[in-house]
Amino acid sequence: MGVPPESHTDELIRTVSEAFRRLEGYITPRCVWGRFHITHFDGGIELEGARIFSKDISRLTSRSGDCVVLAATLGHETDRQITIAQSRNMLEGLALDACASVRIDSYIDDVVRGEISASLCEGERMTSRFSPGYGDLSMNVTEDIIAILSATKRIGLSVTRSLMMSPVKSVTAVAGLFVKK
């Protein structure tokens, strides 16, 4: 008759748990960020000489005069290990890839709750993060963010001609800063 579904679920849980455990052995999480003044224009924002055309980012930062721009990565070894795992066992590779995606996001959350929050002025708040590819924010903005932050030099982050980040398990984002009234 086959294997009961419970054993498939147990196997999946073990595979994901093992992927999270293995991941911690070789990730090298790094983040760079900066606070920048923004100017709004019809259809977007400008910061550090980069004009970002996005009504969504303009709406998100509509109450903001400044923003936080950040870039984070888990490092090249993470990508290498995912490729190795995928060649051995697709389920393990898929689990490792998914766990790495969760891990980079939780790392950024830690940075935001920690050093970025500590740098805010009294009463100041941060909007949610908004990354290239969300809404109408073009993937091309990734190049601007990497340049603004000198992320290639500082954390080894670059972007390919097809606008993929290298290392792949990396994130760039913009968040507005505002004073809560």
Question: How would you characterize this protein structure?
Answer:
The chain has 181 residues and is of the alpha+beta class. The protein has one domain (5-179): 3-Layer(aba) Sandwich (NADH Oxidase), CATH 3.40.109. The chain is 45% helix and 24% strand. It contains 6 helices and 9 strands; from the N terminus they run H-E-E-E-E-H-E-H-H-E-H-H-E-E-E. It has helices at 5-23, 55-60, 76-88, 90-119, 141-149, 151-155, and strands at 30-37, 39-41, 44-47, 50-53, 66-73, 124-126, 158-159, 165-166, 170-179. Strand 2 (39-41) and strand 3 (44-47) form a beta hairpin. The radius of gyration is 19 Å and the shape is elongated. The termini are far apart. The model has no long low-confidence stretch (mean pLDDT 94).
Order of helices and strands: HEEEEHEHHEHHEEE
What is the total tally of β strands? Answer: 9
Quote the beta fraction: 15-25%
Counting copies of identical and different chains, the oligomeric state is: single chain
The share of residues in helices is 40-55%
CATH architecture: 3-Layer(aba) Sandwich
Brief descriptors of the model:
NADH Oxidase; 3-stranded antiparallel β-sheet; alpha+beta; 4-stranded antiparallel β-sheet
Q: Topology, please?
A:
Blueprint: H1 5-23, E1 30-37, E2 39-41, E3 44-47, E4 50-53, H2 55-60, E5 66-73, H3 76-88, H4 90-119, E6 124-126, H5 141-149, H6 151-155, E7 158-159, E8 165-166, E9 170-179
Summarize this entry quickly.
The chain has 181 residues and is an alpha+beta fold. The chain contains six helices and nine strands. The strands form three sheets. A four-stranded antiparallel beta sheet has the order 1-5-9-6, sandwiched between helices. A three-stranded antiparallel beta sheet has the order 2-3-4.
